[in-house]
Structure formats: structure tokens, C-alpha cells
Write a structure and sequence with these properties.
The chain is an alpha+beta fold. Among the domains are: 98-190, PDZ domain (Pdz3 Domain), CATH 2.30.42; 197-271 and 287-349 and 377-420, 2-enoyl-CoA Hydratase, Chain A, domain 1. Helices cover 21% and strands 24% of the residues. The chain has helices at 37-51, 68-73, 98-101, 127-130, 152-161, 221-233, 251-261, 287-292, 300-304, 324-332, 411-420, and strands at residues 10-11, 84-86, 104-111, 114-122, 138-142, 145-146, 164-173, 177-187, 197-203, 206-212, 238-242, 249-250, 270-275, 282-286, 312-317, 337-342, 350-351, 355-356, 367-369, 373-376, 392-393, 433-434. Strands 3, 4, 5, 6, 7, 8 and 22 form a seven-stranded antiparallel beta sheet that branches. Strand 15, helix 10 and strand 16 (337-342) form a beta-alpha-beta unit. Helix 7 (251-261) packs parallel to helix 10 (324-332). Residues 1-21 form the signal peptide. Keywords: Signal. It comes from Flavobacterium procerum.
Length: 450
């Protein structure tokens, strides 16, 4: 059997579905009592044998009486950290992260023999933002416990598992040192759509556009049009795109951004190559086809009309940069110079769509999110499951004082500005020791600092 059409593909945010055809020769599945583990797991096995990118390496059916989430995990190949299964009525099966629960990202470091968490990113209109948390705040206590060398890993895990979080935070600047001690209590809640932040930085007689994108949402093309029309009107000649906290999303929206950025492209130029199993086969999509897979209101030509006068793009990246963000880095390379600055990206080079068990009328059952396609650019370059190395390595935590994103003194942006201006001088900072946190998350919502 072959999947007959790619429509509205999202990279592991699974915001849409593929249309596929089934063979009349498919063997009928055994019949089990509805609602039992056997009923669910038999269905899971059949779906994975049909769609899973690595279906030929799947084990035998095994014990169908296992809890479905455990059973699903046993079907995956060893290094598949992307595929997962959730049940809408079982919150404990959902993936857990600080970003999803509270709307912020954190890392840890040692400075002058003491240990701190540092808030790296706060989503707009999130529980964290609404309770006053912002980038650069240092965390000294988590749930009343002082951070130290032996407990920060355990405390991080605790942060991702609770529904209410209490932190003791403090500010730091090189001029005044530590100040403004404050306790912050945050309830788990919703975070809503994020703005696209952009500005123009005038540096050494150059106009440099800066754009920060937190996620690729469905229908984001209109926002890109507005932002880049303004940047074009201001005559930028260089561009920095900040994707260091962008974990992916809708491919059509990522394609829209790519259409704006790449110079001298045509609508029919090949943009993405999808490679599935023997059932799914291989599918190639041009810029226009990838855009129209999930964008009907904004045309290729409209996006091209706001292309600024640039021939290269600087992309700020890191361990949170995943999926559609990595796709942009990899798939723009055949068409323009892409200069990446920061840390190695997460390494999610697969795509898929949700498979919902809706066999019981009026009730949604388990939803599978398997890896279905590997992604490649027009030159068949890809296979970055271990992450994409930046051209310029730079850890964004160089000192306890962390500048706001978009500020020209912020470490990664300053590195980009220096590179644009041909300045390679190094800046010396106080001694900071970075701490790696061990975690078992299948998304890009975690940053390990080495």
C-alpha cells in the first residue's frame, strides 16, 4: 500500500493528517473486547507495522496485556526518542516539560562555589510570565530546597512533575551583584499564541534585522509577511534569525519563512524530500507544494515580495532548536549561505502525523505519534539525528548576568554582530562552570549545558 498524498504535515507537533490508501489484502486483526489492553495494543501494533519508519525492525507482538504506553515503547527501535503515545483522558501519559506546564526554560551552572538555575526563556502570556518570571532571573531554591552539586538534577526532574512550582529567585548584574530576592509561585496552566519579535539594529553603518521565533504555528505566514515587510521597508542588508528556543511545529509555516529568506528561488524548486518505509515510499515537495500543504491564504508570490536584500542568514541555535527549525537550517543550505551560531541542535530529522484510535463511537482513545518520514534537503543532505553542529560554537551562558533576547549585548547576538562586522575578538567573562542535567525527554524542551 502507498500513502497517496502528503497534506498539512507538521514535524512532531502533528497538527494535521496524511491521506492514505489501504490494500484489500491487509490481514484482518484479531478481535478483542473493546477497551481492554489487548484491544488497544493489537491496534497499536497494526498501525505501527503500516506506518512506522522502522517497521522492519519492530519486535514480535509480545504481551498484549501490558499498559498501552509501555507496550508502545517496546515497539520502538532503541534510538527512537521521538515517537510517543498519549491518551486524552490520562494526563499522566502526556509528555512533561517546564515549557509545556509553566512556559519557561531553565539551565544550571556553578559560580563562585554556589549553584544556580537560570531562566533562559519565558513564553509570552504563560503562567511563568504572568507571575513575573523573566529571562536572566537566577534560581537559588526549588520547592524550598537550596540548589547544590548533588541535588540540582533531582530538583529539575521534580520541577517537570509537579502542577504547582515554588521558586526562590534573585537578580544579578556585574555592577550591583546579587539583589532583589523574591519567591515566585507558579500554577500549571495554558500558554497562548506567541508573537514574532523583530527589530532593526544599526551597527557600523549597517542595518541588521533581528527576528526571534519561538514556534512554527499553523497559519503563521501572515505574521511573517507583516514582520518582513517592515524589515524590507527599513532596508536591512543582513539578517539574524533566533531559533534557539524553537522546538519546531508546522512545516508549511517553516516553508513560508524559507521562501522569504532564500534569494533567487522559483516556486517549483525542490525544498523537501520525505522518505518513509516501503508503504510510504518517497515524496518530494517544491517550495510551493510544501507551503500549500497547510497554507491556503498566503501565496508563494506574496512571500517572495517581502524578501529583503540579503544573500545569507545568521541563525542562532542550541539544544532546543528542533524539527522545523532544523529543517530550515538544513534545507536552506542548497539555496543560500546559512551561518549557524550557538550550540548543537536537538536532532529531530523525522516527521509524522497523529494516528487516533476512534473505533469506539463518540470517544477518542489512544493517539500515536510515530516517526514516519526521514527528512532531507534538495541535495539529499540530512540524517542529523545527533544534531546539527553550528558553524560557530558559542555557549550563551558566559556569565551569571544574562542579557534579554534581541539586546545587542546578548552573547549569541553579539557574536553574530561581530561576525557580520568582521570582528573576531574574544570577550573575557567571570568563571562559570556549566552543569549537565540527565533527563529522558523526547522533545526539545531541555537544554544540557556542558
Amino acid at each position: 500500500m502507498k500513502y497517496s498524498k502528503i497534506a498539512a504535515l507538521s514535524i512532531f507537533l502533528f497538527l494535521s493528517v496524511f491521506v492514505f490508501s489501504c490494500s484489500d489484502n491487509d490481514a484482518p486483526a484479531p478481535v478483542y473486547e473493546a477497551g481492554t489492553n489487548e484491544y488497544v495494543n493489537e491496534w497499536m501494533y497494526q498501525q505501527m507495522k503500516k506506518y512506522y519508519r522502522w517497521n522492519t525492525t519492530m519486535p514480535q507482538k509480545g504481551r498484549l496485556d501490558l499498559f498501552p504506553q509501555e507496550y508502545f515503547a517496546g515497539l520502538l527501535q532503541e534510538d527512537d526518542i521521538y515517537s510517543y503515545a498519549v491518551h486524552p483522558e490520562l494526563p499522566e501519559t502526556a509528555q512533561q516539560s517546564l515549557r509545556r506546564k509553566f512556559g519557561f526554560e531553565v539551565s544550571f551552572f556553578e559560580f563562585e562555589t554556589k549553584y544556580y538555575g537560570v531562566v533562559l526563556y519565558v513564553l509570552e502570556d504563560s503562567p511563568a510570565k504572568r507571575n513575573g518570571l523573566k529571562r536572566g532571573r537566577l534560581i537559588t531554591k526549588i520547592e524550598g530546597t537550596v540548589l547544590n552539586q548533588n541535588n540540582y538534577n533531582e530538583l529539575y526532574s521534580k520541577m517537570t512533575s509537579v502542577s504547582q512550582l515554588t521558586l526562590e529567585t534573585v537578580s544579578y548584574s556585574q555592577q550591583t551583584g546579587f539583589s532583589n530576592l523574591k519567591e515566585v509561585s507558579i500554577l500549571q496552566g495554558y500558554t497562548f499564541s506567541q508573537p514574532i519579535n523583530y527589530s532593526v539594529i544599526e551597527d557600523k553603518n549597517k542595518k541588521i534585522g533581528y527576528v526571534e521565533i519561538s514556534h512554527f504555528d499553523v497559519g503563521q505566514s501572515q505574521s511573517f509577511l507583516k514582520a518582513f515587510q517592515e524589515l524590507k521597508n527599513k532596508s536591512i542588508t543582513e539578517l539574524v534569525v533566533d531559533l534557539r528556543y524553537n522546538g519546531g511545529g508546522d512545516i508549511a509555516s517553516a516553508t513560508a519563512l524559507s521562501i522569504i529568506l532564500a534569494p533567487n528561488i522559483q516556486s517549483g524548486n525542490l525544498f523537501i524530500k520525505f522518505e518513509g518505509n516501503a508503504n510510504g515510499g518517497k515524496v518530494d515537495q517544491s517550495f510551493k507544494e510544501a507551503l500549500e500543504s497547510n497554507e491556503s491564504k498566503i501565496s508563494f508570490d506574496a512571500l517572495r515580495n517581502v524578501h529583503p536584500s540579503i544573500n545569507r542568514v545568521y541563525i542562532l541555535c542550541g539544544k532546543h532548536t528542533a524539527s522545523a527549525s532544523e529543517l530550515i537550517i538544513n534545507n536552506l543550505k542548497p539555496y543560500m549561505e546559512v551561518i549557524t551560531i550557538g550550540d548543537k541542535t536537538f536532532g529531530k530529522d523525522v516527521a509524522g502525523f497523529p494516528i487516533v484510535d476512534d473505533r469506539i463511537s463518540g470517544k477518542k482513545g489512544w493517539t500515536l505519534y510515530p516517526a514516519i518520514y526521514k527528512l532531507f534537503n534538495s541535495r539529499h543532505e540530512g540524517d542529523y539525528s545527533k544534531g546539527i553542529d553550528p558553524l560557530i560554537f558559542q555557549n550563551e551562558i558566559q556569565q551569571p548576568e544574562i542579557s534579554p533576547l534581541g539586546n545587542s549585548s546578548e552573547v549569541l547576538l553579539a557574536k553574530a554582530l561581530n561576525s557580520i562586522n568582521g570582528n573576531t575578538a574574544k570577550i573575557l567573562y567571570p568563571s562559570v562552570k556549566y552543569l549537565a542535567v540527565s533527563a529522558n525527554e523526547s522533545d526539545a524542551d531541555f537544554l544540557k549545558i556542558h
